[in-house]
Amino acid sequence: MTDRDAETGTGRIRWLAPLLPRSTEEEHRSATPLELFFDLVFVVAIAQASGRLHHALSAGHAVEALLSYVMIFFAIWWAWMNFTWFASAYDTDDAGYRLVVFVQLTGALIMAAGVPRAFDEGAFGVVLIGYVVMRLAIVTQWVRVARCDPVHRATALRYAVGVGLCQIGWIAWVVLSSPGGIVGFTVLAIVELLVPVWAERAEATWWHPEHIAERYGLFTIIVLGESILAASIAIQSSIDAGDLTSEVTVIIVGGLLTVFSLWWLYFDRPVHHLLNASTAFVWGYGHYLIFASAAAVGAGLAIGVDHATGHAEIGAFGAGAAVAWPVAIYMTSVWALHERHQEAGEVPIWLSPAVAALVLLSPLAGHAVLVTGLLLATLVATRLVRRHRAPIPEAA
After folding, report:
1. Judgement on whether residues 166 and 232 belong to the same structural domain of the protein
2. How far is 127 from 277, CA to CA, in rounded Å?
């Protein structure tokens, strides 16, 4: 029986429970079924973004594709992240809370439906509708917090007002700007990022470090899974067309080594102890680069298969860079957020950045996917060997 079951004494879901902070000292705090369902729905939006990035880059529209991808993935990531931190602090799991989350999920599906038009035509209207639905839904949650939690009332009201005003700005951006207006997007994105910074200054909300670390880990698995899915679809297409050449086989081997190693690097050690009030914003925001780059790796692997089978307008260097450069961004981000804060002595602090630099240059060598995979596998193996050989600290 959960703590919330004990509160009611019946184990039944209440209609509207007081939306009060959950304890940061809860043991075994893990993702709820609703949070896992939330992530599952976001898979659709991520798959759409990764798939359209693949097709646009493969067709040679690099600049337009990357700009659209950055903007669309920002909407996906920001809506997911705001829900995750709110749920860590205020998940009462009552009927009202669940229904609002369902509204957010509906917004995610609307946003996913608008991704193709955003990529192909620069029309962000449908994406915006889905995003605004998600964001206004969380405004209602903050209004509930303001009514139920006197300690964080000012913070909740700041969130409600700030998020609400941002949605007005986004609507104006779509109505008034030219397709894909990058300047307006950048300004509004910065304002969105500043809302939590401003709101938390009133009175910091409570959240559970282990729960947050698990939620981010689960989302990392999702985006890596999308990479595997995108690559497998491309490989299946080549098999169906009779194009399973030795070059495609090399990409398969390199892709598997790459994705397996990316998973290993992220989950090499527990990271919840790195989360505290002073690091939360940098850690949480920095994961945009991890999530976006991991999902882009799948698009890059699919582009590599397209190039190997003669179905891409992009050259060999571009096809290699479509994998290597997102991998380098992922590695650098994981190192900055996780590895450089871990215990020193077992592995040189410069090792991961050095390998990331080599990965960045791998498109110059040919067979960039295989080279990238081998470099990452060597890094993982080196870390394991050095850690195994490191002396065990003596007990005090």
Report:
1. no
2. 33
pLDDT digits (tens, 9 = 90+) for 142-181: 999 999 999 999 999 999 999 999 999 999 998 887 655 8
The alpha carbon of residue 165 and the mean position of all alpha carbons in its chain are separated, in whole angstroms, by 25
Same domain, 139 and 175: yes
Phi, psi of 34 (to 5 degrees): -65, -40
Query: Which of 172, 200, 228 is the endpoint of a domain?
Result: 200
Q: Are 127 and 76 in contact (CB under 8 A)?
A: no
Neighbours of 250 (CB within 10 A): 17
CATH of the domain at 297: 1.20.1410
* Residues 158 and 291 reside in one and the same domain: no
- Dihedral over Cα of 111, 114, 118, 124: its sign: negative
pTM of whole model > 0.85? Answer: yes
Task: Please say which residue of 200, 224, 243 terminates a domain.
Answer: 200
CB-CB contact of 328 with 360 (8 Å): yes
Taking every pair of Cα atoms in the chain, the longest distance, rounded to a whole number of angstroms, is 66
pLDDT in tens, 188-213: 999 999 999 999 999 999 899 999 99
